[in-house]
Amino acid sequence: MSTLSITGFLSRNLRSVRFFTTIMSSRQQPLLVAVVGVGLVGSELIHQLLSIAPQSSPFKLISLTSSSRTLFAGKDQPITADKLSEWKSTLASSNAASDLKQLTAQLSSLVKEKESVALVDNTSSDEVASYYPTWLKEGIHVVTPNKKAFSGKKELYEAILKATEETSAKFFNESTVGAGLPVIAPLKELLATGDKVTLVLVNFVYTTRSIGFRS
């Protein structure tokens, strides 16, 4: 992996952590975090969350989901820093199969208990992306680098926007181009500070996506 790829990879995850901090800024209760996708990106995010000192961490890692297994620890027995070296084996040995409908029900019940819940999708799965509107409607915050929700059917994108308008749930997405460099958030930040973006150049064919501005 090149230096640019590593920089972009870490930047994506740090943006996720900063997003979590934004959610938590007006709350004193911990943010319950469920992670879907535990590959390269997901593993790094889990490492970063569990590396925060427990006494100062505003997060509780309550669920991990791979393509085949789920480990749902819940809010009372979250996955903690002492499990940093063994969470992969614990997930692999879990008796619970990956079930997004079941996970949705479990997270929704926590929201109904007035808990603040965020789901992080680190996959490139169309199926996982199709759940975004449902999760947002249930009051579950969604954080993702998954491109599928924004380069596929327009109806899904519109459903995501509508869901964020109907609830207080927040949605944060990022995408990378070239050598793994994040592009969505930097462009939005440029626009937010008054700059005008007139042209975006990339060195390879990139799926056209809506990122909230027109050239």
List keywords for this structure.
215 residues, alpha/beta, two-stranded antiparallel sheet
Question: Would you mind describing this structure in some detail?
Answer:
The protein has 215 residues and is of the alpha/beta class. It has helices at 3-24, 40-51, 87-92, 100-112, 126-129, 132-137, 148-151, 154-166, 184-192; strands spanning 31-36, 59-65, 70-72, 116-121, 141-144, 171-173, 176-177, 181-182. The strands form two sheets. The chain has a six-stranded mixed β-sheet, sandwiched between helices. Strand 7 (176-177) and strand 8 form a beta hairpin. Helix 1 packs across helix 2. The radius of gyration is 17 Å and the shape is globular. The two termini are 32 Å apart. The relative contact order is 0.14.
- Count of discrete alpha- or pi-helical segments spanning 4 or more residues: 9
Judging from the principal axes of the Cα atoms, what is the shape? globular
- Percent helix, as a range, is 40-55%
Uncertain segments: 1-12, 204-215
Distance between the termini: 32 Å
Q: How is the main sheet built?
A: 6 strands, mixed
**Helix-strand pattern, N to C?**
HEHEEHHEHHEHHEEEH
Number of strands: 8
> Structural class given helices, strands, pairing?
alpha/beta
Average pLDDT, all residues: 82
Q: What Rg is obtained from the alpha carbons, in whole angstroms? A: 17 Å
Strand order of the largest sheet: 3-2-1-4-5-6
* Proportion of strand residues: 15-25%
